[in-house]
Amino acid sequence: MTSSSKKDDPEPEQDSLDGAEPPPLFPADEETEPEQAVRLRDVPFRMLVPSMITLGAICSGLTGVRMAWEGRFELAIVAVVFAAVLDGIDGRVARFLKSTSDFGEQMDSLADFVNFGVAPAMILYLWVLNGARSLGWVVALVFAMCGCLRLARFNVMLEAPDQPDWKVNFFTGVPSPAGALLALLPVYLGLLGLDHSPFVLWVSMAYMLGIGFLMVSNIPTWSGKLAGQRVSQPFVLPVTLGALFLFVTLFSFPWISLTVASLAYLATLPFSYRDYKRKLEGG
């Protein structure tokens, strides 16, 4: 009895992924016809601008870690602050240029974890927490993980439907950029002359854990998303002068300005919580 010929067997089907093109990182231009969009390979430059800003923020945050490693903590703080500024404008630039994309949103979240989770944890560890050795390192790790959890929850909440319009004015927990600048308060005070005593070490560890808790907590905080979009005519001059005053004081007295700003932000938390409760009860 002869065996069946292998020629009769169907040839194995070629892997469906072989030769498949990867999905586009950026959406097609709205002005492109649908049939042309399939063949379109060039990405408009305006689609790259927000991502370039985000990459610049990552470079700034990582440079802050390097500056701290080299003992140049003043430049480390400047790098983190600059990363926070870039983080504040990349989304606005994307909306202005109509170049928002899922790729940009994901990269922005990764940048926030590096700039506002890893960088401040490393800077504060190299500044004072290393005096507690392994315990100080654990505190730095906990803060970084709190930043990661806060960003993950933020991304999930973006997809939550049926949110009242007024909730756009509030974050759940302290946002990552604010948390990073708040966590660096011991460094500001140190640059103002505060000694590295054992008491300062233990207070800094407790303080950093507290800021990490605020980042992952359910405490409502003002988002400020609508701030600056429209200013009433009578307030144009006062707002302009106030912004100019802030910039001048920040450049002239950076450590005092950052210390005062951090304490002022912490002082607003009870008021934002009260405002949230009032709006929640009022529907």
Descriptive account of the structure:
With 283 residues, the protein is mostly helical. The chain has one domain: Four Helix Bundle (Hemerythrin (Met), subunit A). The protein has helices at 34-39, 45-69, 73-96, 102-127, 134-157, 176-183, 185-191, 198-216, 236-252, 254-282, and strands at 170-172, 220-222. A two-stranded antiparallel sheet has the order 1-2. Helix 3 (73-96) packs antiparallel against helix 4 and helix 9 packs across helix 10.
The CATH first-level class comes to Mainly Alpha
- The third-level CATH topology is Four Helix Bundle (Hemerythrin (Met), subunit A)
Query: In terms of per-residue confidence, which ranges show pLDDT below 50 for 5 or more consecutive residues?
Result: 1-8, 12-17, 35-40
CATH architecture: Up-down Bundle
| CATH level 4 superfamily | CDP-alcohol phosphotransferase transmembrane (TM) domain
Strands of the biggest beta sheet: in what spatial order?
A: 1-2
User: Percentage of helical residues?
Assistant: 55-70%
Shape: globular
